[in-house]
Amino acid sequence: MPLRHALALAALLAVHAGAMAQARTVTVAFGESLEPYVMPQQARGIEVDIIREALQNQDLRLKPVFLAQKRLPYALGNKGVDAVATMLPNYGINGAYSEPYIQYLDKAITLQERNLNIAGISDLARFRVLGFPLASRYLGEPFHQLTRVHPAYSETGNQLDQNRLLYRGSVDVVVADVRIFNYMNRRMLQEFNETPRPVQYHDLFPHLSYHVLFRSEQLRNTFNAGLRQLQHSGRQQQIIDQYDAGLTASD
User: What is the DSSP string of 17-73?
Assistant: First the structure.
């Protein structure tokens, strides 16, 4: 083969390989301050690992990017983002939603020593309540309506603050996922040498199942196929159990 033909073929193969490598990378936006679901500094977590391995089952490679939670619903406005994690179809954002891949266990959390009587969402109107970002939108219409008129309701993007403010008595109730709350207890002890106190969980909210929102229906379908493989093999539950075991061991 003449040298110029060999060089041309090599260049063509290099371009093709580069295109294939690019096609195998899927950029997914994740929210910050969601440990242990999303751990930005380590590029891992329950959600990150599930999505990564579901994509790997289809020979795709995850490229995670991390944003403030309130920016997540608008992440597909960036053409460099292929998908957004931790999304709900009823939020009103157009796109191709995956099958559910993770469920959060959001509860109202109070200090056990106070023995607060909270039997329903309407009872929260009597207390200072601190939620996570977009909790007022995610946790059902009754809670949304309460937060619109409740002068002592607020949200924080740093969920470690929820734990610290609850234990200090600065708020009466925090609204948080149980895994996140327990993880922040561990961080609070390690980083601030502040010891968690016994708490009471009030089961007021629906247990939300979250989806990945894709720009492309084809990519969504490919992800769903990989996710089903992960579920049927038992690997998805193994990922969840590994993180839950880590939380239990650190308590």
Answer: HHHHHHHTEEEEEEESSBTTTBBGGGTBSHHHHHHHHHHHTTT-EEEEEEE-GGGGG
